[in-house]
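User: Second chain of the day. Same drill as before.
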Amino acid sequence: MSTTTRLLVLGVVKVFQPVHGYEVRRELITWRAQEWASVQPGSIYNALKTLTRDGFLEIVGTDQVGGRPERTSYQLTLAGDDEFRNLLREQWWNLGQLTDPLMAAISFLGLVSRKEAIAALEHRIAQIHGMARQTAFVIEAHDGSESPYHVREMMRLMNARAVAEIGWAEQFIERLRNGEYATADDPQWQPAALSSPPQGAAKLVPPARKRAPAAGATAEPRKRTAAAAPASRRATARPGAPRAHGRRQR
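Assistant: Same format as last time:
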């Protein structure tokens, strides 16, 4: 369970306790938490069970309406209240890195054609412009009846982050048009470890080329005389030494 999911589930229970799991789920859906916090509706029930197991929530009752399944009501424990306050302060004061699937796609730019990459970025820019206009209308129409007025600031933050991508995307498109970076249309990039031998490794030396004999010289190698034999071999031929293979001297 992510820190954001823990904070949201504990916070909703704190505000509406005692509260059923269905009500927690419905509340987070109205906040559109699945969009800006990646909290999927189906994971909320599992989060409630996990937080109860860990001692941050406690079950205060179950009821059943008609033929519907039983509904369990939850509230925070003292440990759960402390956990919520600690998480809340942590999220206010700490800067976290946003996760974006586009990062994974850019990692494989070399496998996408330059033309498609530019077209995709232009499409993203058009989508962001449309989303920003829609969000502006949603903010203006927000009347505070279903959620507090400060929810507007959450939507404004989402808008600001999305619109900031437009300037980056336009500059990226310009760099691609200028031929920067390797795409699927260019020779594939390879890590340095594959394009050159590792440091300290033995280098392969090509075999020496045979020199052609000089003009007028015979190609047959000269016979080596006894005087030219290595000193080590001459030293073994001592007078009176026995011959090889154990033959006796005459």
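The chain has ten helices and three strands.

User: Great, on to the next one.
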